[in-house]
Amino acid sequence: MKKFEFSLGRIRDYKNILLDREKNVLVGLMMEKNNITDRIEELDREFERVNNEMHEEMRSGLNVTKIRLYEAQKNGMREEQRLLGDRLDFLQVSIDKQQERVSSLKMDVSGYDNLEAKKREEWGKEFAKEQDLVISEFVSQKYTREHKIT
Q1: Considering Cα of 99, then 104, then 108, then 111, what sign does the dihedral take?
Q2: Residue 60's pLDDT is what?
Q3: What DSSP string describes the chain?
Q4: Where is pLDDT greater, at 119 or 38?
Q5: What pTM, to 2 d.p., does this model score?
Q6: What value does the mean pLDDT take over residues 87-116?
C-alpha cells in the first residue's frame, strides 16, 4: 500500500501562510494601539505638569502673554489627544475586523487539520486490513505447502 498523502495539504499550508500574515497584521495594529495609548498617557502627564507650572507661576504673578502661551500649549495637547483618540477608535475597529479574519482562518486551518486526521485514520485502518490480508495469505500458503508435502 502506498504511503499516506493528504491531497489538501497544499491548500492547508497556503491557509497557514495566510493565517501567519494576518496574525502579523494584527500584531502590528495592536502595537500601534499600545503606542498611541502610551502617547495619550504621556500627554496627560505633560498636561498636568504644564497646568501645575502655570498655576504656580500665577501665584507669583504672571503676565497675560505667558498665560496665553500656557493655554496655547495646553490646547495643543488637548487637540493631539483628541486626534489620537480618533485614531485609537479607528484602530480598535480595524483590530476587531482583523481578529475576525484571524479567527476565520484558524477555523479553516483547523478544519483541514481535522480532515487530515480523519483521512489518516481511515488510511491506517485500510493499511491494517491489507496487512491482515497479507498475513492471512502467507499463513494460508504456508499451511497449504506443509500439507501438500506430507
Answers
A1: positive
A2: 86
A3: -PPP--TTHHHHHHHHHHHHHHHHHHHHHHHHHHHHHHHHHHHHHHHHHHHHHHHHHHHT---HHHHHHHHHHHHHHHHHHHHHHHHHHHHHHHHHHHHHHHHHHHHHHHHHHHHHHHHHHHHHHHHHHHHHHHHHHHHHHHHHHHHHH-
A4: 38
A5: 0.73
A6: 94
Distance CA 105, CA 99 (A): 10
Can you tell me the mean pLDDT for 41-56? Answer: 94
| Distance separating alpha carbons of residues 4 and 111, to the nearest angstrom | 19
The single-letter code of the amino acid at 9 is G
In angstroms, rounded to a whole number, what is the distance separating the alpha carbons of residues 35 and 29?
10
Cell of 24: 502579523
What is d(CA 116, CA 12) in angstroms, rounded to the nearest whole number? Answer: 10
